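FAQ: What does the model actually see?

It sees only this:
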Amino acid sequence: MKLKKILKHSSSVLVLILLGWYIYKNRELYQSIPQLSYHHLLSIAILEILLTTTSAIVNWKIISSIDPRVTYKVSWYLQSANNLFNRFIPKAGAGYRGIYLKKVYDFPYSKFISTVAGLYIISFLTYSIVGVIMVGVIWLQYQVFSAIILIGFLTIITGCVYLIINESTIKAPKNRIFRIINTVLQGWHKIKTNKRFLIQVSLLTCLIILLSSLQLQTVYSGINQPIGFINATYLSVISLFTVFIDITPQSIGIKEALFAYSQAIVGLDASFLIYGSIVLRVVTLIVSAFTGIISHYILLRTPPNKYDSQT
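And it is asked to produce this:
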């Protein structure tokens, strides 16, 4: 376990060094890029708050189905704090949320994790389907195509469909990958009969993709490197997938590498794609710090019965 933590921290430091080196090597190019206007900054901030709000709705629907005492306000505060802590340590936000819910509500957090794991199937399937559609549209419009990206999306779709139709857990050697798969299956079996809930989550997932796409469009427009909505949606799907990779905080470096790889598909130089991603990280970090710190303070200062009286 200690070795795993050392490797994670080491990889994070290495990625930051490589990103810093890349920016330094391209400093003349970046110095010529205009700074974001207040209009762009405000738009990115509002979209980030809307993304937090949408994610909080998904989590609240799960949490309230297990313990109705947990209000949407609490879920929003937890999501804001979660976003902030995850920017520094992988899974730190989930740990914070688990500790708070257990301490304040004696919440069975294992049930929440299991249900969330089941929802990964819906999220991955939705992201992949949208990704395949975007790859197809980009090919039809610009005759640009990536077989690797398409195979990746199709593989994920196939895996999700297999898990959906599978009626039991997988009997296999005890290792981390199969434990994760079985946790996902257990969560899926709990929620698959609730069709209304699954439809709501699917629609909210599509809304997250839309908001993320608009945010990326705003960023690249702000640095005078505009991209179309289709390309922004493609990058959005790629970006959302990296959230589930916890090697580095907020998948820093991993998302940038995938963006750079997609330069031919998007039609924008890798340097600008990486720069836009970093700018977005900085702006959203400021928003997350503001909302996360305030939310953390409110959660510490407000007793549970106060939330109950406000609903």
